[in-house]
Amino acid sequence: MDTSFGLHGYPVDYDMINHVINGGINNKGPHPILIKLLANDRFKSKFINWFMDRFNSDFHYEILKGILDTMVTQLSPYIPEHRSRWGMNEVYDWLSWKYNINIIYNFIEQRQEYIIEHLINEFDIDGLVNIDISINNGGIVQLNTLKIENVDSQSIWSGKYFKSIDISLHAIPNDGYVFDGWEGDIASISDSVNLSPITNLFINAKFSPSKVIRDIYINEIQYLNDNNIAIEVFNASSHTVFTDDLYFTDNQNILLKNKLAALDSTFSQIKPNEYKVLNISNKNTLNQNGKYLAIAQISGNDTIIVDSVLYPILSGNISYGRYPDASNNWKYLPYPTLGHSNDSIVGNSANYTRSSLIRNYPNPFAISTIIPVFISDDSSYEVKIFDVNGINIKNYSITSNFNGVTTIIWDGIGLNNKFVSSGIYFCTLFRNDKLIDTIKMLFLK
After folding, report:
1. Which of the chain's termini has less CB crowding within 10 Å, N or C?
2. Are 160 and 201 in contact (CB under 8 A)?
3. Are 360 and 441 in contact (CB under 8 A)?
4. d(Cα 285, Cα 239) in Å, to the nearest integer?
5. Could you report the per-residue pLDDT of 74-84, keeping only the tens digit for each?
6. What is the pTM of this model?
7. Does domain 128-209 have CATH number 2.60.40?
8. How deeply is 432 buried, as exposed, middle or buried, from its count of CB atoms within 10 A (0-12, 13-18, 19+)?
9. Is 1.10.10 the CATH number for 216-335?
10. CA 241/CA 239 separation, integer angstroms
11. Which of 313, 308, 330, 310 is nearest to 321 (CA)?
């Protein structure tokens, strides 16, 4: 009868709880499986709470009324056509339509109170209590099956539950936040609590920004030459990380060696799921023979290692990276993927069957960019860079009899040994003086 909203069969005050448990009218309704399940106290509490979860959310009167209002507005213009098509009495059937709509309105307004009364009578419950929950923007609270989230830090969620029937609360912090504890009528630092309320409760869930940065990884390392090593940093979280308190070091005894943003101004923030490449130019400290690298953070009076790695001997044609991204599994990557996921197409040698340019990184760039080139045969190859006017800016020859991936580093300096202007440039690959591939680069001086 609840599926027809009182239009057919039983009245709005009919005790369907008694019907399915005890038989109801004419003893037609006992549900043996439900009766057996209700013998379990844990299931009985969940069964009772399920009604209140729904009444406090999907089946709240205002929500149901809003849905019905919308449906009536949408259907009303078609009722005259419906009556005419089926030869109905214009006055009578219009009144019948309005009458039935009012039955539904009355049903959704009154039905909840009757069901609550039936539950109280069936399970000998001692009435209702009000549960008020205050939540700021730092997280959500799961109350039984409901997830409660407030976008307004001043707002309070309110609902009704039964006295002495266990309810569960679980605090879930958003990315970048931590749960500090419960305040109000309960006091606990545990993120999960169970209550058997006997009186009205006000509960405040406290969240605050996390002081410790998580999910920032040194994700890949590539030796480029004696003066350059490229390091990929990956933000595996779903929020932007600001790097004011982050430091980069290659010395286990000096964790706060260099501010990350001071090494490269583009590292002032790292967006969600972003791969950023840091080019380190220091022949004396970072080299291909293997070394310690770490990202550290100042948190209050503490220095915390966010991520670290001891990397092995490297060569110019391969890199060393986490696979999959952000995992604890490191491996040599024969096809470097700096600036991209380590399991991307760039990292799969099976996807490269012909000589081609691989996307440069970083792009856009302000200091230098790395251009990986895949060579599939022993032909004569040359990489040429052109500006938008077609003027040849820079040329690189690739050693003959080389197969695999090699890398070219362009520092924005042209054939005249001067920096080029900011703008778009085209990197091209020629085989035996024939153009075979082109990529676009953006230089920001």
Report:
1. C
2. no
3. yes
4. 32
5. 998 888 888 77
6. 0.51
7. yes
8. exposed
9. no
10. 6
11. 330
